[in-house]
C-alpha cells in the first residue's frame, strides 16, 4: 500500500499449481494479513466496520483462497501470479516472522485481556502487537534487568496501561498516534530514577495511560497539604 506491493499468496488462475487456493494457512499468515488490513484502515482505504468484517473472515480462514478474498480489492496488494509492474521481488505473507532476540519478549493478543503484575521479570525490550485487547503492565514489584525498558508498539483498537513506581519516569513522545490518546500522569524526562520506560511505535484507535499506584498518588496529594 502507498506504493508498496505485497504478495498475498498464490492463485491458480494465473499460473499457480492446481489446488493452491485450497492449501491450509497458518496463524503467521493470518496475522500478516491482519497487519495489511490495519494499514489499509490507517490509509483510509477501509472503514472500521469493513476492517472488523474482513478481520473476522481472515481469522476464520482455513485456506489461501479464503484469506486472499479479504485483500483482493486493495490497491498495492499483489497476489502471487499477477504481474509486478515495477519488477520488484516481494515477500509472501507465508513467511514466518524473524526470531525475537532472547533479551526481549512479545505480547501478542487478539480480543483478549493481558496483565503482568507482581514479581514478573521485565526484559530490556518488549514488543506489543495487540488487536482489540487490553494490556496492563504493573512495574511496581517487577524484577528489572535494566534501568531503561523499551516498549515497541504496533497495536490496533487496544489499550495499554502502565503502572509505575513513584521514582520512575516515562517517555511516550515517540508514539505515532492515529485516532488514539495518551494520558501520562508520570514524570517525563531522562532516566534519573531506577526505572525509565520508553514507549514508541504505532497505535491506531487505542489509548495509552501511564500512572502510579493509588497509594503513591495519595501520599503525594497529602504531602501538598
Structure commentary:
The chain is α/β, with parallel strands linked by helices and 225 residues long. The protein has helices spanning 27-42, 48-60, 64-68, 214-223; strands spanning 6-10, 77-80, 104-110, 113-116, 121-122, 125-131, 134-138, 143-144, 148-156, 159-163, 169-178, 181-184, 196-204, 207-211. The strands form four sheets. It has a five-stranded parallel sheet, with no helix packed on it. It has a five-stranded parallel sheet with strand order 4-7-10-14-12, with no helix packed on it. Strands 1-2 form a two-stranded parallel sheet. α1 (27-42) runs antiparallel to α2 (48-60).
Task: Provide the β-strand percentage band.
Answer: 25-35%
Largest sheet: number of strands, sense, barrel closure? 5 strands, parallel
Record the strand order, biggest sheet: 3-6-9-13-11
Total number of helices:
4
| Strand segment count | 14
Morphology call: elongated
Low-pLDDT runs of 5+ residues are 2-18, 80-103
Residue-averaged pLDDT: 78
Order of helices and strands: EHHHEEEEEEEEEEEEEH
Q: What Rg do the Cα atoms give?
A: 21 Å
Helix content: 10-25%
User: Kindly, what is the distance between the CA atoms of the first and last residues, rounded to a whole number of angstroms?
Assistant: 56 Å
- By secondary-structure content and strand pairing, the structural class works out as alpha/beta
